[in-house]
Structures are given as structure tokens and as C-alpha cells.
Amino acid sequence: xxxxxxxxxxxxxxxxxxxxxxxxxxxxxxxxxxxxxxxxxxxxxxxxxxxxxxxxxxxxxxxxxxxxxxxxxxxxxxxxxxxxxxxxxxxxxxxxxxxxxxxxxxxxxxxxxxxxxxxxxxxxxxxxxxxxxxxxxxxxxxxxxxxxxxxxxxxxxxxxxxxxxxxxxxxxxxxxxxxxxxxxxxxxxxxxxxxxxxxxxxxxxxxxxxxxxxxx
Length: 216
What we know:
Blueprint: E1 4-9, H1 13-23, E2 29-35, H2 38-48, E3 52-56, H3 64-74, E4 79-84, H4 89-98, E5 102-105, H5 109-121, E6 126-127, H6 129-146, H7 157-167, H8 172-179, H9 183-197, H10 202-212
Parallel strand pairs: 1-2, 1-3, 3-4, 4-5, 5-6
Helix pairs in contact: 1-5, 2-3, 3-4, 4-10, 6-10, 7-9, 7-10, 8-9
């Protein structure tokens, strides 16, 4: 098994040192670089080509959302895990739209970092439990206030399978291979899912899945 190569990007040296210490306890993980600004994070990511960039959302020179967007656009094979102090859904949606694969709260990084890197390293998504709880509470409250039922119940069994696989970060081709169906069939399921749930992007599918507890 090849080693998982990780770039750490945070403007606080002590934070990077703490993250490095946790990561280096794993024989199969390797810190291949550190960055103290958003611009440096993008530059190093493109030069070093790590598997994962652990990136603070509040970076000098170039914020973490824009850095994520640039990395994801120019090197889509690199997976970005965002570090943040904020559990606000607006931040989460922005980083997902930018291309991030996970959202880890700083105050739980010492506990959840291993789980987060493991999940993102496997191509899945990860959200700190506290973030998932906030999103679920907001979602349920909004449904109750609007007198609506959960549209997720309208999905067929196969659509729920496709929904989860997409939310975990799989491409349509990968979903097709996992389920033993054609890509066009997955495309059709995806279209029906987005229509039924009234979502309009993969980022919104991921958010919906977190709210439902389908992924964490």
C-alpha cells in the first residue's frame, strides 16, 4: 500500500506542529509540506501533488475557500480537507462548492483528524459530528416551520443507493461500476434524485446527505 501524502496549510505554526504530530503517528501517512499562506498552499499543492491538503479556512493572502477552488480546478485529483472554527452552514456550502471533500472543526481536530483523513483518503466526505448535528437540527426545524415532509422518503431504493454513493464522492462512472449498471442509468437516477430533492449540484447533495445522517 502506498503512503498517503499530506500537505498542511495553516498560518499558525503551533497548529501545524500539532497536526503533524498526530499524522506522523501513522506509518502509512506522510507530511510532505507545510504552508503558512493560502497562496503558498496552492503553489505547493500544484508542485508537490499531495493526496490530501489539510487547509485552514482563514488563511492570509488567499483565503481557504479560494485556495480550495484553485486547487480543485487545477488539480482535481487532490482532495481538500478544510479546517475551520465555524459550524455555520453558509461556510460549509461555500467550501463544498469550491471542491472540498471534508469540513473539520478546529476544536475537535485532535479527536477527529484521524477519522477525517482516513475518510477523505478513501475518497469519501467527512464532517465533524458537531457540524452534522447543527445541520440536521436546522434542517428538521425548517421542515417543521414550513409544514413540509422530508423529500428523501420519495426516493426509490436504488435512488437511495446512488444518492449515498454520489454524496460519498464517487463519480457517475464509479457509481456505475459499484452497482453494475451503465453510466447512462446512473445519470438518469442522478437527474431523478436532484428533481425529487430539489437540489442543483453535487455540493447540495452532500449537504442533504449530511443533514439526513447518510454520511458523516
